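name: query_chain
kind: protein
chains: 1
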Amino acid sequence: MLTPNHVVTTARAVLVGGALTAAVLMLGPWPGLESVFGLSDKAAHAIAFGGLMAVSFLAFPRMRRNDLAVAAVLLGASIEVAQLFTADRSASISDVLADAVGVGVVHLISHIENLRALARKRGAATFAEIAAQDRRRGARGLAPVVKAVFPSPVETLKADRPASFAERAARRFPRQA
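structure:
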C-alpha cells in the first residue's frame, strides 16, 4: 500500500537527484546547454530552482516553507560561488536572482491553498484577528509588522477609551490656559 511516508521518501530521493543534476549541469563544461531546449540561461535557472523548491515541499513536510526557500536560494548562491573556481563558467548575481525568482514563484503559489482555507473558514475576519487567534504563536503574540499594518480592533477600542475616571474627565473637560 502506498502511504504518505512513501511519497516523502521518494520526494527526498528525487530532490537529492535533482539537486545533484542541477549542480553538475551548472558546474560542468557544458555552458549554453539550456539553449538546446529553447531556454535562456535565466529561465533555466528559474525553472530548475522552482522545481527543486516544489519537490522540497513534498520531501520535508514538517519544515517551514520559508526555511526551505532560504535553503534553495543558498544552494543557488553556493553554486554561483563554485562557478568562480571553474575554467568554463563565471559567476553571476543575475543567475542567483533568477534562482530566487523561481523559488519565490513556487513559494507564493504554495500559499494559495492557505488563503482558500482562510476564505472558507474565516472569510469575514481581518488578518490581524486571524493572527491573534493562531495557537502556534503562543505567548509571542502578533509580530510587530503585523501589529503596525493590521491594528487589532480590540486594541483600537482600548486606545480610544481612557482607562481611568481622571483620564475620561480630562478628555471631556480639557484645561484652558
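note: The two ends are 84 Å apart (CA to CA).
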